[in-house]
Design brief:
Blueprint lengths: L2 E6 L17 H5 L13 E7 L2 E6 L2 E6 L5 E5 L5 H5 L22 E6 L2 E6 L4 E4 L8 E5 L5 E6 L2 E6 L4 E4 L8 E3 L4 H6 L10 E3 L5 E8 L5 E6 L6 E6 L9 E8 L5 E4 L8 E7 L5 E7 L5 E8 L4 E9 L12 E3 L5 E5 L6 E5 L5 E3 L7 E8 L4 E6 L8 E6 L6 E2 L6 E6 L5 E8 L2 E9 L4 E7 L14 E7 L5 E7 L10 E6 L18 H7 L3 E5 L8 H5 L8 H14 L5 E11 L1 H11 L7 E5 L10 H8 L6 H6 L13 E6 L8 H13 L4 E5 L8 H18 L4
Length: 723
Amino acid sequence: MKRSLLLFLILSGVFLSAGEKKKIRYEQIFDGKGFFRLTSPLPALQGWWDDSHYILSEEGKSWKVDLSSGKRELLFDPKEASFIEEQGFSLSFAEDRPELTAARPSHGRYLFLKEGDLYMADTKSKTLEALTKSPGKESVPRLSPDGSRAAYVLDGNLFVYDSLSHKTLQITKDGCEEILNGYASWIYYEEILGRGSRYRAYWWSPDSRKIAFLRFDQSKVPVFPLFNAEGDYGDLERERYPKPGYPNPEVTLGIADTLTGEVTWIDVPESKGNFVAFPLWEKGGKSLLFQWMNHGQDQLKVYRYSLGNRQLKSVYQEEQKSWVEFLSDENLIPLSDGGFLLVSDKNGWGHILHIDKNGKERFVTSGDWSVRGIELWNEKSKTIFFLGSKEDSTQTHLYSIGLDGKNLKRLTEGAGSHFPLLSPQGSYFLDSWSSVSTPARMDLRDRRGRLLKTLGDSSVNAPMNDYSLGKVELFRITTSDGWKLPALWTLPPDFAPTKKYPVLIKIYGGPGAPSVANAFPRRANDFFYAQEGIIVLSVDHRGSGHFGKKGSSLMHRCLGQWEMKDYIDTVKYLRTLPFVDPARIGITGGSYGGYVTAMAMTYGADYFSFGIADFSVIDWRLYDSVYTERFMDTPQENPEGYKNGSVLSYLDRYKGGLRITHGSMDDNVHMQNTLQFINKMMDLGKPVEMMVYPGERHGYRGVKGNYQAKRDWEFWKKNLLGQ
């Protein structure tokens, strides 16, 4: 196998002599006092006010800044909300903060939850009002676009409070533990709507008059118990958690009139046993787009519902042999003529597809590279602005292209990862970007990509200039069957090719979830490990997304197979390097990364010396239905795939060297996984180091997170450095 070096890190600025450079101290990484930053902060931008003014946040104040002159106008001063602080509330913990844009100016209202009740603060009238006083706990509050109403969920029912009449309207009345209106069932929150939804499953119309919401009947979803060990007797938390082959919640879509309380239920064809999600109001609020997916997750449909005549029409459908995924908001853009844009990977790579008002389809972009998301559609110029990786899969750039597929142009400069924020019409964009050789910068550019000014450079007066840091290199590792895997490592600052170094591989490894990017490292941890003599390496396998859906779909019905082949090929490559100690190769990851680590230490025991697996999936029968069945189908449909993808199938190969951890109340990957693994290891007489984090959920934070980081370092120091 061969390695082709693409980029390596040379820190810029005035270099001190080697003797004057500092080393990162243990306390800076592990003392738990905060995030040790190597770079200086960039300006905090909230977005755009209009096409020629952006919004800057400084010390809690919001300013409208003229991009030409730099002149500032104060939009918000936290002193205006001092009365909120005086009554025991903080804007930092507001449940719903209005956007500061010309299209949606701040209406000065904020929602707070305190001791289960809902409060509304109005900075214009300087009032703070308790909206509810009930024995239950209100949740997922959301202001209407005009700020006149507040919706929330209580005991599974949807309510709307009118700030003008000071009256509350109860929209639904059948809510209970089994029936949830406007509040997502766990599986929808985790795998469909996403954690960013915070369980909210309703959407205000643009005119603040109506609400589209999902109703979940989870009465057939089995209950999984989570034991909380606090107190004398502990407590049992019941979670409706569908596992592969078990029933999912039944979902229906309704539209509520917030003045009358009337609910119109949309009769979605084939809704029973399938998925309905992502209502999207079209301009004016007279029609609604939403998505349907079959239980097998290989068919997707987009429907349009017209509120006037109550007609439902299928406007797009897609089917794939492997799986399909729901379209996020940035990848489904309605057009004024009744057509829309979306991003589809049905041809093997993610590309922009234009569906006209008559349903005719045409790809706007094409090629062996992926569009990552549509950033803006300019109706007047018929121009699409989008993020993509045309030059290299480890890079992200902003491009523009005409609706007709002509005039494709890259607008960002400099190899690396660019995350632009476009003005409302796309006349300008604020480009936050970095690369392995360039700490984060923020540039202002026009619609042609021309640099107007640099607003921030995180390398200026940065702590990194005072430290001796290892070299970061981005390269590719060629597998035995020709796939060129993206890889990135951090070498010790005193690296010498004549020495022998241990290697720590950090991975995630899930389908379509890349870890390697041409971006400056955000955390100092890898530099600390490298400073102490460990080469820190990240590698993405063929199904990680770098090779489009063409690569990811190889994982269909066989999770674990290609990950192990590619990571074992990675170790085979490392063994060819004279400066790598083949007896000291570690691997670590959490969640899916914990699964890959556990597989590496069992299935791949001949190649991996030590591992730390955190909150790991051990057997796919024990994880949730939507994620698992998307890639594996059901256990009844694919028994061999589940057997071959289970860590439990390879325990006889285990040679030791694994530390496995789990939070006792992990509601995502249940500790049941780790307990079944440990139980079988004991039966086989195999030694495993285990750590349980009482009361922790999926991942460890705060004091427990700091404790975990210290224990990890002690493990690697002992096993990779022999200290």
